[in-house]
Amino acid sequence: MLLEITDLAVEVDEKEILSDIDLYIDEGETHVLLGPNGSGKSTLFMSILGFPKYNITRGEIIFKGEDITHLGTTERVKMGIGVSFQNPPAIRGVKLMDLLKIEHHEDVKEELSPEMTEQASKLKFDERFLERDVNLGFSGGEVKRSEILQLLAQKPDFIMFDEPDSGVDIENVELLAEEINTLLDKDKKPGLRKNSGLLITHLGYILNFVTADTAHVLMDGRIACSGNPDEILEDVRKEGFKGCVECCKLIH
Ligand SMILES: Nc1ncnc2c1ncn2[C@@H]1O[C@H](COP(=O)(O)OP(=O)(O)OP(=O)(O)O)[C@@H](O)[C@H]1O
Ligand SMILES: [Mg+2]
Using an 8 Å Cβ cutoff, are 252 and 72 in contact? Predict the structure, then answer.
């Protein structure tokens, strides 16, 4: 197993947001996390990333066989965890170009490598755009494309995407999906895939373009069900998350 989360409970400002979370993601797998607003999806994301505000009160997170439950975010990122945030902050005074060079282990004083320039251009960023401060005045779609570009620079092997498709128009969702597929090794046969992912989405729109192995529904801080993504999505699209409340009662 690449990621093993067992019996996890998480508090934010002394309020319990997540409990009884069990989640196991193997090498090469893509899991989807669905759930209504406020159910705790981003909290789980931030807890796996190790943000200090997210206080783990029970359970453990094992990544690549190592207990990372109380490890700092920097160390987790160095171990191969990459993220695309739902709402990343603007960083005044830091050019996107320079951040990309750091993430791609390039010299900040040198020109951006041809590899990264090409990746940027695939995601519709020209050199002038890359000179802008990170996320400052970026449109919603530009923020999401910039997050994916940074992941392409970092090349992590476990990637969490928090709502990569929200607020993005159809052409740009397809473009983002293409790069997400690259990041998750979807061009390889399932058995040969190395990279894994956790994809958080409300409506599952991105799943028209990115295949997933398993889906989980989070309800009120607990996993209500896990299973086949197509089946679960069909149910959620038909009935909303109402039906998941009953399953949650049965499981817990
Ligand atoms: N500092 C805090 N104090 C109290 N409650 C908090 C705090 N931070 C977050 N929460 C609550 O935790 C719950 C889960 O929030 P979270 O952002 O994880 O939800 P989400 O599933 O990602 O929602 P969305 O779909 O809207 O992005 C929410 O009810 C939120 O208000
Ligand atoms: Mg969220």
Answer: no
